[in-house]
Amino acid sequence: MYLAPFPLAPFPLAQALPTQAPGVFTGGANVIAVLILLAEFGMLRQALLRDHIRLYMAQSALIAILAVIVAAARHIPDLYVLAALTVALKVIVIPLLLRRLLRETDPVGAAAGGADIAGSGGLGEASTVLLAIVVAAFGFFAASRLGIRSDAAPVTALSVSLSVVLVAFVLMIHRRDVVSQAIGLFSLENGISLAALVVAASLPLILEVALLFDLLLAVVVFGLLIRIHHGRGRSLSTADLTRLRG
Amino acid sequence: MSVVAALLLIVPFLAGLASFAAPPRAGQAITAVSGVASFGLVLALIPDASQRAASYFGFVRVDALSVVFLLATSFLYATVAIYSIGYLPGGHGHDASARYTRRFSLGLNLFAWSMLAAPLMSNLALLWVAIEVTTVISALLVAIEGTDGAAEAAWKYILIASAGLSIALLGTIFMYYAGAQVLGPHYSMAFAPVLASARHLAVTPVRMAFVLAVLGFGTKVGLFPVHTWLPDAHSEAPTPVSALLSGSLLAVSFYAILRYYQIAVASLGPRFPRDVLLVFGVATLLLAALYLLDQRDYKRLLAYSSMEHMGILAIGVSFGAPIALAGVLLHVLAHAAAKGNAFMGSGVLLRKFGSKEMRGVRGGLDLLPWSGPLFLAAVLALCAMPPFGIFRSEFEIVAGGLATSHNGPTVILVILVTVAFLGLTLSANRMLLSRPRPRPGPGPGSAEPGSAEPGSAEPGSAEPGTAEPGGPLTRGEPSVWMVVPVAVGLVALLVLGVHPPGELTGLLARAVAQLGSRA
C-alpha cells in the first residue's frame, strides 16, 4: 500500500527527529527533563501546600540527578559539585525553611496533617491545566526553532526547560497564596537550571555558586516577607492585596 | 585606583554593619559619613575612567559608562544618608524607634552597597547577582514600615521583580551560550572579551539574550508592561528609600540593559536593539504620561514620573546619535538629582501634613519656607524646565532624534513629555500654591489619626512639633537635616544644566564613545 508523504516540514519537531533511536544518555536525559516538567504540572494541580513542597523537592532532586548524569557522560567534574550543592540547598534547606514557615503560620493545619489548602485563582482547575499545556507546547516548539546545539545535553531538554519556565508563570499567576507563589518562583528557577545544564553546562563553578547563594538569600527574604504578610492579615491568601492600584 | 574600587565595595558594607551595632544616632552619622565618602571615592575614579577601562581583582571593571552610574548612585546615597538624620526618629536605648532606626540604617547602607557593586562587576553573571541582591534588600526596606500597604507593596515588588530577573537570568545563560561558541566553554562571562568577539557571536542566541535582558532587567527599570510593582513600592517605601529606588535602582538596572545593548549592537548591528528599545520606551512613556494626569497620591505621582524618565532614556538610546547618547547619560545624573530632591521634598510634605493624598496638602509654599520652594524647583526640574540639568539632557535627546531623522518618535516624545509636564505642574500647583487650610482639623486627608488612611503616616509623623492634630499648622521646617541635602541637589541640578564641569563632559564623551562604537 502506498502512503502519500506526510507534509511534516512545517512541524519543527519532525526536523529535529533523529534518524535512529537515541542513545542511553540522550534518552535518559530527556526522560528526566520530561519528569521535571511533569513535576511542574503536578504543582499546578496540587492543592495541599505540603505536597506542593514535596513536589518541589522531587523536581530539585531530578535536576541534581540530571547534573550527575551529564557530569559522568561528558566528564565535567564541576557538575558533581553543583549537584551536591543543589541537593543541599534545594532538596534539604529550602524545603526545611518552607516547612518551618508553614508550621509557624498555620499550627492548626500542621497538627491536622496538612489541611492547609492552597487558594486557587479565577480560572477553574481544568482550564488552568489546559492553558498550561498550551503555553508548554508553545515553549517547547519555540525553543526547537532556535537552532541551538549543545555538546552537554540533548537540545530537547532545553525545549522542555522553556516549557517548565512558562508553566511556572501560569502557576504563579493562578495561585492566590503567598507560599504557592514563592514555590512557583523557585520552580521557575529550577526550569532555568535545567536550561543552564543544556546550554551552559561548563559555566564556571564559582558563578554557579554565586547564583545558588543568591537563591538562598532570596528564599530567606521571601520567608521574612511571608511572615510579615501573615502577621498583617492572619492568612496566606493574596486575595486582600488589592489596596494599591491606579 | 584599585584601592578606590576596593574601598567602594567595602566602605558601605562595613558602614551597614557598624550602623546596626552602634546606637541609632551614631549609626546615622556613620551612614552619612559612608555616603559622602563613597561619593568622594567615585569622584576620584573619574579622571582615570575618562581615559581607559581598568580591571581589578579579576571581577571588578571600571570604565566611563560604569562611573556615570556610580556617580548617580553615590550622589543619592550621600544626600539621602544626610536626609535620613532628620527623617528618622532617633530613639534612646532599646525602644521600638531605636530598633527601627538601626534596622533602617543597616538596610540603607547595604542597599547602596549592592547598587554600587552592580556597575563595578566585570562579569555578566555577577552583574545579575548584584542586581538580584539589590532586589532582596530593597524589598525588605519597602516592607520596613510594617503597614498593610507596605507589606502588600513589598510582596508584589519581590515577586514581580524576581520573576523578571529570572527572565534576565535566562538571557544571561543564552549570552553565555553565544560566548562559549567563540571563546571556549570555560570562559568566565567577563564582559570585555564577549564584547571584543561580538562580531563572531551566533546571531539567534544574542538576539534572544538581548530581548530577554531588556524584558528581565526592564522589569526593574519599570518598562511597560512589567512596571506594575513600581508605583506601589515607591509610594509605600520610606521616603529615603523611595528616593534611592527611583534615582539609583532604576538607573542601575538600565545600566545592565546598556551592557547587553553594547554587545547586541556590536553583534547584530544597531537596527534590532534600537527598535526593541524604541518600542518599550514609547509604550512606557505613553502609559506614564497618561497616569501622571490623574493621581491622588503625590508619591505615586513621582513614581510615574520615574517611569516617564526611564521611557525617555530608552527612547534616547534608540536614537543612537552621539548627542542623544550624551543626553541619555546626562539624563541619568540629572534625573537622580531631581527625583531625589522631589522625593525628599515629598517626605517633608508628608511629615508636615501627615498625608500622602494631594488634597491633604494645601499651602505648601506658605507653610514650608525652604522645602516648599525647593520642592517646586524639583518638580520644575523634572518637567525639564531650564536652567536645570534635565532640560539640557532632554534637549540633547530631542536634537539627536531629529539629527538621525527619527522625526515620528521625536514628535511623540515631545508631546508626551508635555503631557507629563501638565500632570506634574497641575498637581504641584494644587499642593503648593493653594491657600493653607485655616484649620486643618478633622477632615479628609488631615493628620488626624483615624481620618487618615491606615498606614499613610510614617513613623515620626506623630512626633511633637510637626503635625499637631486639630491645631492649625504653623510655618516652619520639620528639620534642618531635611533641607540641606535638597539644597545640595538643587545646586547639582543647576551645575548640570548651566555649565557641566569639564571633567564630567570628558567622562560622558568617553562613555558615549563606548556605547556608540561597533566593536
SSE map:
The complex is a heterodimer of chains A (246) and B (519).
Chain A: H1 12-16, H2 24-45, H3 49-74, H4 78-105, H5 107-111, H6 125-144, H7 155-174, H8 178-199, H9 205-233
Chain B: H1 2-21, H2 24-49, E1 54-56, E2 60-62, H3 64-87, H4 96-120, H5 124-143, H6 148-183, H7 191-196, H8 203-221, H9 229-236, H10 239-268, H11 271-293, H12 298-319, H13 322-353, H14 364-367, H15 371-382, H16 389-403, H17 407-432, H18 484-498, H19 502-516
Antiparallel strand pairs in B: 1-2
Main traits of this protein?
heterodimer; A: 246 residues; mainly alpha; 9 helices; 72% helix; globular; disordered N terminus; B: 519 residues; 3 domains; 2 strands; 73% helix
Describe this structure in words.
- The complex is a heterodimer of chains A (246) and B (519).
- Chain A is an all-alpha fold.
- Chain A has one domain (26-233).
- Chain A contains nine helices and no strands.
- Chain A has helices at 12-16, 24-45, 49-74, 78-105, 107-111, 125-144, 155-174, 178-199, 205-233.
- In chain A, α2 (24-45) packs antiparallel against α8 and α7 runs antiparallel to α8.
- The longest helix of chain A is centred in the last third of the chain and has 29 residues, at 205-233.
- The N and C termini of chain A lie far apart (67 Å).
- Chain B is mainly α and 519 residues long.
- Chain B has 19 helices and two strands.
- In chain B, α3 packs antiparallel against α4.
- Classes of the chains: A mainly alpha (246), B mainly alpha (519).
- Chains A and B meet through α7, α8 and α9 of A and α5, α6, α8 and α9 of B.
Distance between the termini of chain B: 26 Å
How many domains make up the 3D coordinates of chain A? 1
Q: How much helix, percentage-wise, in residues of chain B?
A: over 70%
What is the mean predicted local confidence, pLDDT of chain B? 88
Question: Rg of chain A from C-alpha positions?
Answer: 20 Å
